[in-house]
Amino acid sequence: MKEMQKKFTDLFFVVLSLPATAIGFALSVQIQCLGWILNTQLGYDLHQIGLVWLAGPLAGILGQVIVGIISDNTWLWGGRRRPYIIIGGLIGGLMLILLPNLGAIKNALHLEGTTLLIVATAIALIFDLSINVSFNPTRTLITDVTPEGELRTKGYAWMQTISGFFGVLAYLIGAFVGNIQLIYMAIFIVPLFTVLPTFFIEEPKELVATGENAVTSETNLPEFLKICFAHAFTWVGIQTMFIYTFGFIKEVVMGYKITQELPSQLNDQIGLATGISFAILNTIGFIFPKFVLEPVSKKIGKVWTHKLAILIMAIAYLITFLFIKDKVGLFVMMAFIGIGWASVVSIIFAIVSEVVNKAKMGLFMGLFNLAVVIPQIVASYLGGWINSMHDKSYIFLISSVCLGISFVIWLFVKDTDKK
Question: How far, in Å, CA of 104 to CA of 94, rounded?
Fold first, then answer.
């Protein structure tokens, strides 16, 4: 074991964060580019785009749960999580090559209608499956190599600080350099950050749960289920924002119909506004976990920290629905929405890790992921309904209601920091 891992140095937490950073970067590329490509290259409306986005949740159900179970009970290449991180990262990098070439594939194969939709969905499915093979292990690895308590919270905070920074970088590159260029950069970043760091981290060959989590007790299992239920409503709201915000920008902010074909410069402006919006979201998302949420959680506990972050997010969504009609207003609200996002991608994993059996962490992280992918499916099916709405601001009303319900459920979750 290397000295940095023995002493839990900041360098160790940075290296430990890189595999999750790679997967987060790939997801940022998908959020920034997929809807834009499907609309500008293939002419899809929100309903069709929602159907293509179904690929991710379906891949998540298959990939994360199965990989979580298998990785708990296997040892290969000197690690439990390492093989899946490496394989997923390499395949993900290769699949990124196809993403900017959907239009070329359409023209070369003379695809139209349902056939074209199937091909686009298949490419998205394979891409998402490769990501989901790695997604669970990159986060479970942090639990495997850190002790329960402040060091584990620190591990997840560092994860989101590094991952969030690269997420912001992705959105800024997409906004100011171009979405296509962003994708080609990701082709190199994703494999590099998944493969290289794994050789500097030593995984424990035996996973031994201690304290309350030595068994999955009757006390902890209901808490785990409440957390999953609350998190599911959180993700319906968040995924609705991720998939359809560009539609809000195109119709409400820019004043064009979603099905309207636009010159390339106007499409670029929509991409610019979308990129800046999510860059702001992720800037808060990477600054807050380490420098705000972690210190606050030491004072009031992780669960209350998360509750308040979710409440702020719900209020920001509601304000966006009621009042926001321009880019500047949207950018401001994205900063407040980012507070909730910061907790969703960091603190929540530390909370979950302390109510389940560490020896079965891959399994439980996979099950917890169902509280993400099933809501993503729900959000994908909202596309047809949202597409028919005369006012796309209702996108944010849906998100606000979902986050409000999540906050109410979180009020019944016990604070894991209380002894």
Answer: 17
